[in-house]
Amino acid sequence: MADPRFFASSGPQRLADIAAAAGARFEGDGERRFSGVAPLQSAGPDDVSFLDNRRYAPLLQETKAGAIVLAQAFAGEVPAGSVALVTAAPYLGFARVARLLHPLPAPVPGIHPTAVVAPDAVVGEGTEIGPYAVVGAGARIGRGCILHAHVTVGPAVEIGDGCRLHPHVSVSHAVLGEGVVLHPGARIGQEGFGFAPTPDGRFETMPQLGRVLLGDFVEVGANSCVDRGSQGDTVLGPGTRLDNLVQIGHNVRTGRGCVVVGQAGISGSTTLEDFVTIAAQAGLTGHLRIGAQARIGAQAGVMNDVPAKTDVIGSPAMPVREFWRATSWLRKMSARRESEGKAG
Asked: UDP-3-O-[3-hydroxymyristoyl] glucosamine N-acyltransferase non-repeat region domain spans which residues (predicted)?
């Protein structure tokens, strides 16, 4: 069960309300109460658990969970005393149950005495500004936001309603939509990596004169960086998610619902269309276009455009089937040469 020192609880909640949150149907007493969520192997009678992967099906028969969010295919295997919450999307349903039982902390409206807020900054109703936070001149903070300790919001930055900026976040030259979440140490709007070499071997910085635009419900992971544009804007479309330790170069643009996993990097002026997924440690060179719903595999080196709905992997990246055919051929050739060497 979630540690109450760190996670708020709204429980106990009625089974009927839990099922409604999960979008699930059930049989039994809708007034039965549940207090938390837990994995199948450790859940108790007051907990809700879930099953979304057949490999964990053996745990189902032994679980003590009071209710289990799962697909119809497993409903008949739920042990006596447990309630099957049947839904087409168990993981999503369970996520919504977990949020129902363990809601995010609400803002505590007010400005901490150690915070520094410019006199002409606008702070929306119900917003919380924590210790040692700094809000620059002309900045606008929406309603119901939380700026945790040591957050820095630069001059003229605009932040929409319901945003959460975790400790040590810095934001400059940026406009944030509604419900944006920036995790600890995220850096938004800093100068991009642009310079011109001089005849005598030095580098002269190219002025970075654009902004960062974060759409509604964008989330940026801990210690990730989103550079501002050079001559235009860097744009992360609504619902885009960046994992921890992600680098977004200047003038990158993403569509809706893109996902970029840890330690991936996207070079300047590359465009991701809607619902692109980039796996861990992948690297994309600049000025590319990645088509809608394309998927870039882990550690891929992408040097050319990728068509929509295409899966690529490898460095240089290639379509997945080509990659595995090439890998298989190389293994066969290696084995043949080794065999020939032993025979000789």
From this structure: 34-100
